[in-house]
Automatic annotation (TrEMBL):
NCBIfam families: SSADH
Similarity field: Belongs to the aldehyde dehydrogenase family.
Organism classification: Bacteria, Pseudomonadati, Pseudomonadota, Gammaproteobacteria, Oceanospirillales
Pfam families: Aldedh
Active site: E254
Occurrences of domain Aldehyde dehydrogenase (ranges): 17-476
Xref: SUPFAM superfamilies: ALDH-like (SSF53720)
Taxonomic source organism: Marinobacterium alkalitolerans
Keywords: Oxidoreductase
PROSITE patterns attached to this UniProt entry: ALDEHYDE_DEHYDR_CYS, ALDEHYDE_DEHYDR_GLU
Protein known as: NAD-dependent succinate-semialdehyde dehydrogenase
């Protein structure tokens, strides 16, 4: 980073940069090198409680601001994020590990939510309802839900934050954010830019901690928190749902996935290979929407596997800051050990190793881009979210068969398929039980489209015009005596 203005070493509560009362800190390490990037306060549950109280106080005046005022501040935040895109991207790569080109793209993607929801703030319309009585008038208005607790993951430490904070602020809510303990620095940098944009004290609060369970439980069960927005694993999401139930909070859940990627015999194989490469190996496979299971129709299996294996072999592994890197490190040693174990178990169960399969000599947290063939649904690897640079190949014969097999999972976040038959495109898209479907596309996320899943992959949608809905309450007004 050319400037250290955005590299903060304090949490942000009630408009103040603060240390932990205990003085304890959490070191943030570069996963590619092991070097310390910075350190942040290790706040406890009591300090998380203070952040909620600050957000509650700020809500009393923030909710009264006009939509235009909130729009103006969000657009200033967007402009500041984009003005600091390179600095933020370097910080993101340093603490998360993804290639710098991907980090730049994430910062731009993250900024887009501030711009989009700034505009949507002015479009939170109510309704006039035709009354059954001539002496009454019926209308609805939309009002902010209140204090929002947002809990975000480490794999997209900019975009997952703005995708939650921006609609909350646009609606008139205040926010307490707990970023992942592996990647808190981007969250603090965004808070610095929000302060520069002019957001009042207490509207945005960032709680950093090495104890995510205690702090998370405080936020998700706090009586002053009216909504919880969480992105992460399905087991943790289920726990948060239990925590939020006692006070009947509104919840948004963007949880795990097990995305199928289907290549039909009429697909453009060159396009399909390009699509599956970027879907699978982006961020070293550490995305909730990345491809987990690749289904190839039998008649094109041999041609696809030969070309796909060659493409995987050409991927360049290394430190994210290097311009030549395609695949960076995994986030920590636990992630590497898990990927290693998953591959080992698959091989024991009969999978065929077509490429990779081992740690990479680039460093302790690097794993080779891996390709496994001869995989079936009875193997453990087919039933879980991989979160690593592993591709698994399945063979299918018919359209109905592959739809049934693709749907045979408790998850339903994203799915992909390639075909040039327009009828098949409609049939398969409608038949797949997923919240998002990419048709001849490997990257489907943007700020204008609804992001979210079905089944155990989540509740609600983020982004798009629907993304502000869960931060608003509908109030019905019945006016009599007219």
């Amino acid at each position: 980073m050319q400037s250290r203005e955005l590299l903060k070493n304090q949490a942000y509560i009630d408009g103040k940069w603060v240390n932990a009362a205990s003085g304890s800190t959490l070191a943030v390490l570069n996963p590619a090198t092991g070097e310390q990037v910075g350190e942040v306060p290790d706040l406890n549950a009591a300090e998380a409680n203070a952040a909620v109280e600050a957000a509650h106080r700020a809500f009393s005046h923030w909710k009264k601001t006009t939509a235009k005022e909130r729009c103006t501040l969000l657009k200033r935040w967007y402009e500041l994020i984009m003005a600091n895109q390179e600095e933020l991207a370097q910080l993101l790569t340093a603490e998360q590990g993804k290639p710098l080109a991907e980090a730049r793209g994430e910062v731009g993607y993250g900024a887009s939510f501030a711009e989009w929801f700034g505009e949507e703030a002015k479009r939170t319309y109510g309704d006039h309802i035709p009354s059954p009585s001539p002496s009454s008038r019926l209308v609805t208005i939309l009002q902010p839900v209140g204090v929002v607790a947002a809990i975000t993951p480490w794999n997209f430490p900019v975009a997952m934050i703005t995708r939650k904070i921006a609609p909350a602020l646009a609606a008139g809510c205040t926010v307490v954010l707990k970023p992942a303990e592996d990647t808190p620095l981007c969250a603090l940098a965004l808070a610095e830019l929000a302060e520069q944009a002019g957001f009042p004290a207490g509207v945005i609060n960032i709680v950093t901690t090495a104890d995510p369970v205690a702090v998370g439980d405080t936020l998700t069960s706090h009586p002053l928190v009216n909504k919880v927005s969480f992105t992460g694993s399905t087991p943790v999401g289920k726990h948060i749902l239990h925590q939020a139930a006692d006070t009947v909070k509104k919840v948004s859940m963007e949880l795990g996935g097990n995305a199928p990627f289907i290549i039909f015999d009429d697909a453009d194989l060159d396009a399909a290979i390009k699509g599956v490469l970027i879907s699978k190996y982006r961020n070293a496979g550490q995305t909730c929407v990345c491809t987990n299971r690749i289904y190839v129709q039998r008649s094109v299996q041999e041609a696809f596997v030969e070309r796909f294996r060659a493409a995987v072999a050409e991927l360049r592994v290394g430190e994210g800051a290097a311009d030549t890197t395609d695949v960076g490190p995994l986030i920590n040693l636990k992630a590497v050990e898990r990927v290693e174990a998953v591959v080992g178990q698959a091989l024991e169960e009969g999978a065929e190793l077509l490429h990779g399969g081992e740690r990479h000599p680039a460093g302790e947290l690097f794993f080779q881009p891996t390709l496994l063939g001869n995989v079936n649904e009875q193997m453990a690897i087919a039933q879980q979210e991989l979160f690593g640079p592993i591709s698994t190949l399945f063979v299918f014969d018919t359209e109905d068969e592959v739809i049934e097999r693709a749907n045979d999972t408790p998850f339903g976040l994203a799915a992909y398929f390639y075909s040039r038959d327009i009828g098949r495109c409609w049939r398969v898209a409608e038949g797949l039980e997923y919240g998002m479907v990419g048709i001849n596309e490997g990257i489907i996320s943007n700020e204008v489209s609804p992001f979210g899943g079905v089944k155990e992959s989540g509740i609600g949608r983020e982004g798009s015009r629907h993304g502000i809905d869960d931060y608003l309450e509908i109030k019905y007004l019945c006016m009599g005596g007219i």
